[in-house]
Amino acid sequence: MWAVLDADQSLDAAPLERWMSAGGYLVASGDARAWAPILGWNPEACRSEAPENPYAAHAWVFQSGPPELIAPPGWPVSRFDGHAPGVRTTGTVYAVHGERQTPQRAVLRDLLAPAMILGQRYCFVNSHPFAALQAWLQGQEDLQPWLGWRHRLFWLDEWVSALASLLSGTPASPLALDRPGVGECGETTVILRHDVDHSRDRSYLDEETRRGVPGTFAVLRDGNTRFWLDTLESDRGHECAFHYNTGRRDWADEIAGRLRGSTQSKLAPHREAIRAHGLARQTAWAAAHGIGIASLHRHLTYLMYPEWVDSLDAVFAQFPNVRGASSLFRGQVLRWGADRVDGSAGTIGEWPDAQFPFWLPCKLAHAGDGGRMLRGWESASMMECEPELVDALVSHRIAHLPQRVLTLGYHPAHGAAATFSRDGSLAAFVQVLDVLEAHRVNIRTASQVFGACDAAAGVH
Q1: DSSP strand pairing (372-373 vs 365-366)
Q2: Any residues with CB less than 8 A from the CB of 451 and at least 6 apart, and which?
Q3: What are the CA-CA distances from residue 62 to residues 93, 108, 262 (Å)?
Q4: What are phi and psi of 115, to 5 degrees?
Q5: How far, in Å, CA of 366 to CA of 134, rounded?
Q6: Exposed (0-12), middle (13-18) or buried (19+): which is 253, by Cβ within 10 Å?
Q7: What angle do the packed helices 129-137 and 155-166 form, to 10 degrees?
Q8: What does R_g of the chain's alpha carbons equal in angstroms?
Q9: Tell me, what DSSP letter sits at residue 264?
Q10: What is the pTM of this model?
Q11: How far, in Å, CA of 7 to CA of 370, rounded?
Q12: Do residues 192 and 162 share a domain?
């Protein structure tokens, strides 16, 4: 038996000491000073330091192997003036800066800190790797400077695989570790997500119905709401889900643009729709009007962090029927109150980068509440993938990860309009379904996948 804990503050030593005394194995990360009393170290010999270069990330280097990017910029590293008797160290932590986008030419600087410290009943991993995954996943840190370090569309999956490989020599993650996964999902599951937006085009739905393939149709609050409710009510093989709003029209910019001759609608982030209980109010409206709320799906380009995590937490607490959401797809991540992309507090993901390339349903961590996990699930997605790209996605395999769930989004409005296909995307979408059939993947609705994850986790 083993457990993983990430800590930066004081810990209750007694239960952890009992755990190890009973034969349990502990994987620890965070500030070494918090772990010193439990792991038998001298606290005075431990210190936590941020790299000298503020935009330097951390990499682990083992022997003569390549650097393995492990944590984002600005995070501290634990340093030691000596080690307790009977422990061994392996690997070294390096700062990564300079030309970060190209691993072969990046600047690597030895931080004179071990990557891992191995004791008889524990392993301490330096550089906060478990919290780092959440930071990248939730958009706290921008992946753009680092996308060249791994497969761009499976970046975080390959991060997990790399960490599993590095831990494979410990009892925490041996190569023979049983990974039962989610029984109902098989090796590859695909969710076909359709954001109906301002369209009444049924062509995707009709093609899926003809093939007996379930789709998840995210219904927006607009003039087409009743049309889609009636349509999906008469075709129960599909999921009616809620498409929650994150933006609004910027009338001042739009009027100014029209005076300059522009006919484009201007959009702006709509924080009131998300922050505090804004998303809960949206969800209550959807439930009252007959829209399915088992799964929630983000509308428009804005992902406002950390308000979005707070709002999902409030929804999960108020609505037990909400199983999860699909909010992580490319767009504008607006951090800490930013209203526009500025490269720091706000960043943007460009096609075909997934921006959140993690193809496993996951639970978000609430950074403002000690890293507490939210009740419901989150699922990353990609929008408008052509058949060849879908084939590449479902063909890719990653060590240590026997399962993945790919959420592929297609807008009904584009069935007869140009996105990745000049003359309309319906014919290409038919080919996508052919590709999925050829690969014999499972196709499930979002709520079915979240329900299966709940069952696998023992949630009733």
Answers
A1: antiparallel
A2: 294, 323
A3: 9, 13, 56
A4: -75, -40
A5: 10
A6: middle
A7: 170
A8: 23
A9: P
A10: 0.93
A11: 9
A12: no
The bridge status of strand 25-30 relative to strand 122-125 is parallel
Spatial neighbors of 411 by CB under 8 A, at least 6 apart, are 194, 195, 196, 197, 199, 383, 384, 419
Q: Which of 32, 132, 27 shows the shortest CA–CA distance to 74? A: 132
Identify the sign of the CA torsion 28, 32, 35, 40.
positive
How are beta strands 57-61 and 88-98 bridged, if at all? antiparallel
Nearest Cα neighbor of 169 from 132, 127, 130, 115 is 115
Measured between alpha carbons, how far is 382 from 401 in angstroms, rounded to an integer?
Answer: 20
Q: Which 8-state DSSP code applies to residue 207?
A: H
Q: Are 443 and 190 in contact (CB under 8 A)?
A: yes
Tens-of-pLDDT digits for all 460 residues of the chain? 445 556 665 667 888 888 889 989 999 999 999 899 889 999 999 999 988 888 999 999 998 789 999 999 989 999 999 888 889 999 999 999 999 999 999 999 999 999 999 999 999 999 999 999 999 999 999 998 999 999 999 999 999 999 999 998 888 888 787 788 898 899 999 999 999 998 999 999 999 999 999 999 999 999 999 999 999 999 889 999 999 999 997 766 766 666 677 666 678 899 999 998 999 999 999 999 999 999 999 999 999 999 999 999 999 999 999 999 999 999 999 998 888 888 778 889 887 788 999 999 999 999 888 889 999 999 999 999 999 999 999 999 999 998 999 999 999 988 877 666 677 789 999 999 999 999 999 999 999 999 999 999 988 6
Number of domains in the chain: 2
Tell me whether the omega of the peptide bond preceding residue 352 falls within 30 degrees of 0, making it cis: yes
* Within a domain: 275: yes
Distances in Å between the Cα of 418 and the Cα atoms of 220, 352, 381, 457 are: 22, 16, 20, 41
Q: Are residues 444 and 357 in the same domain?
A: yes
Q: Does residue 104 fall inside a structural domain? A: yes
**20 and 126 within one domain:** yes
SS3 for 92-152 is: EEEEEEECCCCHHHEEEEEEEEEEEEECCCEEEECCCHHHHHHHHHCCCCCCHHHHHHCCH
Residues 154 and 194 in one domain: no
Domain residues for the domain of 121 are: 2-166
